[in-house]
C-alpha cells in the first residue's frame, strides 16, 4: 500500500512499530500455550462423559429411562405416525431380537461413513476391520513436554491385527516463525507419527500381493515370485509421510497428502471425538452444512472449514465467534 | 443419517449419548469463559506495547535507531534502487521538512482506507473527521461481569464533536442455547451498544438537512421548513440497531446490517487493534489474501473469513490451526 512512498522519518517509525508487533507475536504464543494448558485441564473434565459414552456404545451399561429422555420435532412426528399406524391396526411388531442389540452397533464405523473426509479414505476391505473400532480417544502431551496430541483408536480383538490400540501423534509448534513472525496465528500441526500395525498373516490391507513370472537366465526355467505393492487403505493413516527430515523438501503431492492428513488429525481431535454422537446421527453435519452447494459445503466442513453457512443464516451471522474457540483448519 | 431406522433399544441409547453431549456443551462453555479470562490477562500484557505504539504514532516518542532496525527484501531493493539513482546523479533531495512529520500521520485513517470492510462505510465527509482518530483500544468486561468488550475510539480535539472518546460495546453470550445446545461453538456477540456523539453545530454528518416548503391552510402563505433525514456515515457505527428488544424480530435487512456490525466489531478487536501496523502497511492484508480472486478474497478476509488461501499454499495447508486461536466471524 502507500507505505512505500512514506518519508524516511515515518518509515523509520513504522519499523519501530513492526518491532513492537513482533514482541506482541511472542506474547501471543504464550497465550496459546496457556490455552493449551486449559484444554488439557478440560480434557480431564470431559473424560468421565467420554467413558460413559463408550460404556453405552459398547453395551456394558444400559442407560436409565431418565438418562434416555429426549425431545425433538422428528420424534414427535414419529410418535404421531406410529399412533396413526396403531389406529389403522397396522402396528408393526418390534423385531423379536429388539432387546438383543448390544450397545450401539457400528457406532464409530457409521461415523466414518457419515464424514466425507473419512469415508473417502475407507476402502471396501477396510470396512470389516473398522467394525471392530470401539473408541477413539485424544491424549494431550504432558505439561512441560513439547506440544502434541495423540489419537488412540481402540479396537476389540479381531482377525486382522494384534494391536488393541492404533495411535497417531500430531506434533505442534506454538511460536512465531522468525522469518515470518506476522503470519503466526497460534499452534500449528507441524509433524505426525503413526504406529506399526501388527497385521495377522495375509490380512494386511495396506499392501497388495502381485505375482510375477521370472525366467532363470541359465536354465531358462520359469518361476513365479510374489511381490508386495502398496494399496489404498484407511490404515495408511498410521504410516504417514515424514516431514521431519529437515532440508529436503516434499513434492506438491506429498505436501497435499500431508496437509490433508493434518486436517484429518485436527478434525478428529476438534470435532469427531468431542461430538461423536452428532456425527453418528448426522446432526453435526447437517447443522454445519448450510451451503447452497450441499455436498461441496459439507466437504469443506469436513475439512474443518468453518464458514459453512450462507447469508440467509442470520441466526449465526448475528453471532461472530469469540477468541479461544476451536479454530478450523484452513482450506480453500 | 441412518439413525432414524434404528431399533428402539438403540435409539434409546443414542438419546442417552445426546444427554451426555449436552453436558459436555456446558463444560465447553466454562472452558470458553476461562479462555476469556486468559484474554483479559493477556490484554494487560499487550497494553504497554499498544501504549508505546500510540506514543510513536502520535509523535510523543521518537524511537531509537536500535528500535527502528528492520530488514525486508523490499527494503533491500529500495536501497539498491537508491544507489543506482545516486550513481546516475539523480539523487532526489529529501523534502526539507523531512524531519518535521509528527509521528505517523493519518495512521488510523490509512487503516480505515486499507481495510475494505471499513472503507465501505467511510463517506467522503467522514474522512476529515477520521483524520483526528488517534487510537483504538479494546477494553474487556471486568471479571464476574457479563462477558463483553468495548471498542474505544480516541480522537484529538476537533471541530466536529466534543467527545474525546467514542465507544461501542459488544455484549457476548457463552452458554449453549437450550433449544439448540449442539450449535454452541463458544462465546458469541449477541448485542451491541453505541454512544451519543456530541456533534458541534451543523457538523453532524449522520444527518442531512433538507428544505421543505409548507403552505399555510388558512392564509395560504408559504414557509420553508428544514427537516433532518439520516445520512450514510461511518459514524452511524455508534448508533446501531437494537436487538435487545426481545420478542419482536428484525427484518432481513436489519439482521444483515447487525450481522455486519458484529463482524466489524469482532474484526476491530481480533485483528485491527492487535495488528494495526500490518493493516497500515497492508502486510496483514497481503499475507492473508492469497486468493486467486484477489479483491474478492481480500474482501472476504476483511469480513474476518479466515480461509483466504488456495490449495497451492502448502506452507499454511500444512499447518491446521490449533484450538484457542482467534476464531473468525462466519460469512459466506
UniProtKB/TrEMBL annotation, chains A, B:
Q: Where is the composition biased (Acidic residues)?
A: 284-315
Q: What is its main location?
A: nucleus
Map out region (Disordered) in residue numbers: 284-332
InterPro entries attached to this UniProt entry? NAP-like_sf, NAP_family
Mind telling me which residue stretches traverse the membrane in this protein? none
Q: What does this protein do?
A: Acts as a chaperone for the linker histone to facilitate deposition of histone B4 onto linker DNA. Required for both remodeling of sperm chromatin into nucleosomes, and linker histone binding to nucleosome core dimers. Plays a role in tissue-specific gene regulation. Required for primitive hemopoiesis, acting upstream of tal1/scl.
The name this protein goes by in its record: Nucleosome assembly protein 1-like 4 isoform X3
Organism, scientific name: Geotrypetes seraphini (Gaboon caecilian)
Amino acid at each position: 500500500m502507500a507505505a512505500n512512498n512514506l518519508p524516511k522519518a515515518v518509515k523509520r517509525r513504522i519499523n519501530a512499530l513492526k518491532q513492537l508487533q513482533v514482541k506482541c507475536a511472542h506474547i501471543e504464543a504464550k497465550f496459546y500455550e496457556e490455552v493449551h494448558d486449559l484444554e488439557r485441564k478440560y480434557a480431564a473434565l470431559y473424560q468421565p462423559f467420554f467413558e460413559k459414552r463408550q460404556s453405552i456404545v459398547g453395551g456394558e451399561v444400559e442407560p436409565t429411562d431418565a438418562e434416555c429422555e429426549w425431545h425433538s420435532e422428528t420424534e414427535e412426528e414419529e410418535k404421531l405416525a406410529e399412533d396413526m399406524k396403531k389406529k389403522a391396526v397396522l402396528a408393526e411388531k418390534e423385531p423379536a431380537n429388539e432387546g438383543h442389540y448390544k450397545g450401539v452397533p457400528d457406532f464409530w464405523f457409521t461415523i466414518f461413513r457419515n464424514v466425507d473426509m473419512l469415508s473417502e479414505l475407507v476402502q471396501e476391505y477396510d470396512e470389516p476391520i473398522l467394525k471392530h473400532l470401539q473408541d477413539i480417544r485424544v491424549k494431550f502431551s504432558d505439561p512441560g513436554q513439547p506440544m502434541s496430541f495423540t489419537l488412540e483408536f481402540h479396537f476389540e480383538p479381531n482377525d486382522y491385527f494384534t494391536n488393541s490400540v492404533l495411535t497417531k501423534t500430531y506434533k505442534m509448534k506454538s511460536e512465531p516463525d522468525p522469518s515470518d513472525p506476522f503470519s503466526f496465528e497460534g499452534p500449528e500441526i507441524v509433524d505426525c507419527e503413526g504406529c506399526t500395525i501388527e497385521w495377522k498373516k495375509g490380512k494386511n490391507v495396506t499392501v497388495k500381493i502381485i505375482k510375477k513370472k521370472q525366467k532363470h537366465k541359465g536354465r531358462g526355467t520359469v518361476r513365479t515370485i510374489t511381490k508386495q505393492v502398496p494399496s489404498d487403505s484407511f490404515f495408511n493413516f498410521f504410516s504417514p509421510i515424514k516431514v521431519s527430515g529437515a532440508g529436503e523438501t516434499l513434492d506438491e503431492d506429498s505436501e497435499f497428502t500431508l496437509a490433508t492428513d493434518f486436517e484429518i488429525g485436527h478434525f478428529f481431535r476438534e470435532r469427531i471425538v468431542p461430538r461423536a454422537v452428532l456425527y453418528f446421527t448426522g446432526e453435526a453435519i447437517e447443522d454445519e452444512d448450510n451451503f447452497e452447494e450441499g455436498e461441496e459445503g459439507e466437504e469443506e466442513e469436513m475439512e474443518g472449514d468453518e464458514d459453512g453457512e450462507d447469508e440467509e443464516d442470520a441466526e449465526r451471522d448475528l453471532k461472530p465467534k469469540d477468541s479461544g474457540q476451536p479454530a478450523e483448519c484452513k482450506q480453500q
